[in-house]
Each structure stands twice: as structure tokens, then as C-alpha cells.
TrEMBL record:
Pfam family, one: CN_hydrolase
Coiled-coil annotated spans: none
Source organism per UniProt: Dacryopinax primogenitus (strain DJM 731) (Brown rot fungus)
Record SUPFAM superfamilies: Carbon-nitrogen hydrolase
Protein origin, superkingdom: Eukaryota
GO biological process terms held by the UniProt record: asparagine metabolic process; glutamine metabolic process; oxaloacetate metabolic process
PANTHER family: NITRILASE-RELATED, OMEGA-AMIDASE NIT2
The name this protein goes by in its record: Carbon-nitrogen hydrolase
Keywords from the UniProt entry: Hydrolase
Length: 310
């Protein structure tokens, strides 16, 4: 590998406490309805349960049914240009325009779940991020495609219509640096390890686990990534719709750096709220200092090799 798939982001902003809200939304096959409903829920989540939220998150493929046959029909061009990253005027995407407007009117940071994205002849599963001025700050294309086959239970092959992204993604908010992944990405610990070393205080994954792997691994994977990296980890799911082709597990969750569940929900539509406290990260890291106890003399330093490309 000569060219690293990500670069060092330099010093992270000083972390501050913030309020996180996960929208567990019940979607449909109607994109216009999904955009309208997402907007209503963004305002509800912003108002919070007695305390205003700072960062609001939508689920994976919130504007489309989750299925390889639906992605081509629902895909939109985003035209994200990292050099002109705050320019949404050039984005032809109705979803980007709708989310940008909602983030600006609500005055919040918004992780706009994910959406099927078209770029040339390729399709991606892409998350978009907006700041409180409604600017499109970054996008994350799902890196690890959900290709699994558990006979008699579930077979799903995102690669039948999607291409995997080729970079890791972070964004800097006024409350700290946040790492992004999408659903199946959480099964690949390297992504979260590198994010933590880059100064991220939380990994957030718009997601849609299913009825087979949800009960087995949904909470376990989040707690594992949180404890390994002594950071907050959160997954935001759609609500379960038994009339849809894909039955989402639900249970949107926020985990703290000790691996403790801060907040969660069942399979129904709703909003999950949690306070992110950087002091907890500092306390966990001081008390159990695994980060300074790594034995790079006997195994490779993943972060260093990711930076140098060697
Ligand atoms: N949408 C997804 O990537 C699903 C991932 C999943 O269910 C898993 O078990 O992993």
C-alpha cells in the first residue's frame, strides 16, 4: 500500500460535554414521506426530553427501503467535493438539500443517517454530516459491505449493487472529533482503533442490523468497541417494520467508555437521548491505561502503518 486511505487530521478540538439524540425512524417505500418524516423527527429530537440536543443522528438508508434491488432506484448524486466541502448549492441531491435545511433551521449538528448514493456508474451506501449552519461537512461511504450468508436465517449481499468506500471518516464539531462508520463497519475493529488514536471521542454508526444478528451481536459489538478504545460508541437503527422485506433489529443504543449502556430503546419508533461526558473517557483511560501499555515490540502498530502506508 503506497497511499494511505486516510490522513492524520492533526490536533482534535478540545472535547466538551454534549447531548446526543438517535432517531429510530419508521421508514417507508415513499422517499418524499421519508424526508418529511425525518424532518419532523429531527425537530422533535432537537427539542429533546427537557434538554436541547447538540448532535442528532438518523439511521442507515433512512430515505430508502434497505435492499439491493431498491438502491439503484433511490440513489442520488451528492457531488461532494472535499475542497468545497461547505458548498451544498452544487449538490443535486434532494435528500442533501432537505437535511441541510433541517440542520440549519434546528441549529444542530446532524448525521443524516445514510442514503444510496450514485457516483458515475457506481452506487455507495453513504452517510452525510451537516453543521448547524446547514453546511455539508463530510460524507462517509460504507467501507465494509454487508455480504453474509447464514443458511436458513439470512443471506444479504450489498455488493450485488454497491461498491465499498475507500476512506475512514471523522469530523470536527465544537464539542470534539467524531468518527463515522456504517453498520457492518462496526465488525472491523481497526476502524474504531484508528479513530480513537486520531482523537475521536465517539464512534457513531447509522445502522440496520437484522433479527438474526441483532440479538447476537448488536450490543456486544458496541460494548466491545467502546471498551477496547475507551470511547463512546453508538448505533442508530430504523424502527422495525414487519411489512418490509428487511426486518431491522431496532434497539438504537449509546454506550459509554466503560462499556455501560447509557440509553437504549426497543424495536419501535422513538428517540434515544444520552449525555456524552469527556471526563468519563479521561477517567477510564487514567484508571485502566491500556493505551500506554501497548506492546508494539511484539505486534504491529496499526495506527502508525495506517499513517505511513507501510
Ligand atoms: N446493514 C448492515 O450492514 C447490517 C449488518 C448486520 O446486520 C451485521 O450483523 O453485521
Amino acid at each position: 500500500m503506497s497511499q494511505p486511505a486516510w490522513k492524520s487530521f492533526g490536533p482534535a478540538p478540545t472535547p466538551k460535554p454534549f447531548r446526543l439524540a438517535l432517531i429510530q425512524m419508521l421508514g417507508s417505500k415513499d422517499k418524499a414521506y421519508n424526508l418529511k418524516h425525518a424532518r419532523e423527527l429531527i425537530f422533535k429530537a432537537t427539542a429533546g426530553d427537557g434538554k436541547k440536543s447538540d448532535l442528532v443522528v438518523l439511521p442507515e438508508c433512512f430515505n430508502s427501503p434497505y435492499g439491493v434491488t431498491h438502491f439503484p432506484e433511490f440513489a442520488e448524486s451528492i457531488n461532494f467535493d472535499p475542497e468545497k466541502k461547505y458548498d451544498i448549492i452544487t449538490s443535486p441531491s434532494e435528500t442533501v438539500q432537505a437535511l441541510s435545511t433541517a440542520a440549519k433551521e434546528a441549529g444542530i449538528w446532524l448525521i443524516g443517517g445514510s442514503m444510496p448514493e450514485r457516483d458515475g456508474n457506481k452506487l455507495y451506501n453513504t452517510a452525510t454530516v451537516y453543521n448547524p449552519s446547514g453546511e455539508l461537512v463530510t460524507i462517509h461511504r460504507k467501507v465494509h459491505l454487508f455480504d453474509i450468508d447464514i443458511p436458513g436465517k439470512i443471506t444479504f449481499k450489498e455488493s450485488e449493487s454497491l461498491t465499498g468506500g475507500s476512506k475512514l471518516t471523522y469530523f470536527d464539531a465544537n464539542f470534539g472529533r467524531i468518527g463515522l462508520g456504517i453498520c457492518y463497519d462496526i465488525r472491523f475493529p481497526e476502524q474504531a482503533i484508528i479513530a480513537a488514536h486520531q482523537g475521536c471521542i465517539a464512534m457513531i454508526y447509522p445502522s440496520a442490523f437484522n433479527m438474526t444478528t441483532g440479538p447476537l451481536h448488536w450490543e456486544l459489538l458496541q460494548r466491545a468497541r467502546a471498551v477496547d478504545n475507551q470511547m463512546y460508541v453508538s448505533m442508530c437503527s430504523p424502527a422495525r417494520d414487519m411489512s418490509a422485506d428487511y426486518h431491522a433489529w431496532g434497539h438504537s443504543t449509546i454506550i459509554d467508555p466503560y462499556g455501560i449502556v447509557v440509553a437504549t430503546i426497543d424495536e419501535n419508533e422513538g428517540v434515544v437521548y444520552g449525555d456524552i461526558d469527556p471526563q468519563k473517557i479521561a477517567d477510564m483511560r487514567a484508571g485502566i491505561p491500556v493505551r500506554s501499555q501497548k506492546r508494539y515490540d511484539i505486534y504491529p502498530n496499526l495506527v502508525e502503518s495506517a499513517v505511513t502506508g507501510k
